[in-house]
């Protein structure tokens, strides 16, 4: 990794010196200069991923663009290079594959290694979402969401962490969501997968930071993408993908572990997360309860079960 990539932060300590990382320093190194850095962006064909690709190429990064659609990736690559200034010297490499398949990861990694010798930063940005209430779970859709949002991340880690640890350097960026902070309706499958990523990022930071690997957890609020177009309600503090990409890079430049935006919305959910159960659950029910016409009406007393007065 080029030395200009990290500023105002000490070199990563080897595992035996993990205690040398003081708690008052930023959780990660400050990433301020992307020139020449090799970034593997999973989920780059649209939304936040596509916007992040454009932003990184414009800052001089060498970006591997991955998703399932090669045509969409080629379009993103062309737009990113066109938007970048001639002085940026950013590059793109399109590697289309299905990130939920282990064999596809092996082939993609071989392609990236042959072309660029590896990567410095892995960004897991692929996502799937379908609004779904708890009484209306579709097994096929559920499996797909879990595969894209969670399984692909584990496969990405399995494919890249060993190389990062061997070099004593690298970074992992997990894009979760504030939907993983609080149980919200319509996110019956999506929300738990993002909650899992939040948990994974925290334990991952503990596992690998001493080996020189930074871990960044990104929890966006509502961002205008193909996924949020499925929502049938007014989304507060809605951002563009470009605004989200810029917020992500600003958080990484500050060395933050938890990067969330926009603050005027996300801070409310972080505060809600820490309220007592009785109050938090009442608030969620008050503002997000399903209309009675949408919910399946169930009998209040199961058949053949007699009730008795409470003692």
Record the SSE blueprint.
Blueprint: E1 6-7, E2 30-31, E3 38-42, H1 47-58, E4 62-66, H2 70-83, E5 91-94, H3 102-116, E6 121-124, H4 139-167, E7 170-175, H5 190-208, E8 213-220, H6 241-253, E9 258-261, H7 263-273, H8 277-288
Parallel strand pairs: 3-4, 3-6, 4-5, 6-7, 7-8, 8-9
Antiparallel strand pairs: 1-2
What does it look like?
- There is one protein chain.
- With 311 residues, the chain is α/β, with parallel strands linked by helices.
- The protein has a single domain (28-288), classed as Rossmann fold, CATH 3.40.50.
- The protein is built from eight helices and nine strands.
- The strands form two sheets. It has a seven-stranded parallel beta sheet with strand order 5-4-3-6-7-8-9, sandwiched between helices.
- The radius of gyration is 21 Å and the shape is globular.
In brief:
The protein is of the alpha/beta class. Helix content is 40%, strand content 13%. Strand 6 (121-124), helix 4 and strand 7 (170-175) form a beta-alpha-beta unit.
Rg, Cα atoms, Å: 21 Å
- H/E element string? EEEHEHEHEHEHEHEHH
CATH topology: Rossmann fold
- List the uncertain runs: 1-19, 295-311
Helix content bin = 40-55%
> Which architecture name does CATH use?
3-Layer(aba) Sandwich
Name the overall outline.
Answer: globular
Query: Which class do the helix and strand fractions yield?
Result: alpha/beta
Beta-strand share of residues: 5-15%
Number-wise, the strands total 9
CATH classification, class level: Alpha Beta
Work out the helix count.
Answer: 8
How many domain units?
A: 1
Largest sheet report: 7 strands, parallel
Strand order across the biggest sheet? 5-4-3-6-7-8-9
Query: What oligomeric state do these chains adopt?
Result: single chain
What would the average pLDDT be, to the nearest integer? 88
Distance between the termini: 69 Å
CATH superfamily: NAD(P)-binding Rossmann-like Domain
């Amino acid at each position: 990794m080029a030395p200009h990539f990290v500023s105002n932060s000490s070199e990563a300590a080897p595992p035996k010196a993990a205690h040398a990382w003081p708690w008052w320093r930023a959780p990660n190194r400050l990433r301020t200069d992307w020139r020449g850095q090799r970034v593997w962006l999973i989920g780059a064909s649209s939304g936040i991923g596509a916007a992040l690709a454009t932003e990184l190429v414009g800052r001089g990064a060498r970006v591997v663009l991955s998703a399932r659609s090669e045509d969409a990736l080629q379009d993103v690559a062309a737009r990113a290079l066109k938007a970048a200034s001639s002085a940026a010297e950013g590059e793109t490499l399109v590697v289309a594959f299905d990130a939920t398949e282990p064999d596809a990861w092996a082939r993609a990694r071989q392609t990236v290694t042959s072309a660029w010798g590896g990567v410095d930063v892995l960004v897991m940005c692929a996502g799937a979402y379908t609004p779904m209430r708890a009484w209306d779970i579709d097994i096929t859709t559920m499996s797909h969401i879990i595969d894209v949002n969670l399984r692909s991340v584990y496969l990405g880690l399995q494919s890249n962490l060993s190389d990062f640890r061997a070099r004593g350097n690298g970074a992992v960026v997990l894009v979760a969501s504030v939907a993983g902070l609080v149980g919200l309706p319509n996110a019956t499958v999506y929300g738990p997968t993002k909650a899992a990523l939040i948990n994974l990022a925290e334990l991952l930071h503990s596992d690998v930071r001493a080996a020189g690997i930074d871990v960044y957890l990104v929890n966006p609020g509502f961002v205008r993408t193909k996924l949020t177009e499925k929502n049938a309600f007014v989304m507060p503090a809605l951002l563009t993908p470009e605004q989200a990409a810029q917020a992500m890079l600003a958080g990484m430049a500050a060395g933050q572990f938890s990067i969330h935006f926009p603050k005027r919305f996300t801070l409310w959910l972080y505060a809600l997360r820490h309220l007592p159960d009785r109050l938090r659950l009442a608030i969620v029910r008050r503002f997000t309860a399903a209309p009675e016409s949408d919910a399946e009406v169930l009998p209040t007393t199961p058949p053949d079960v007699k009730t008795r007065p409470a003692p």
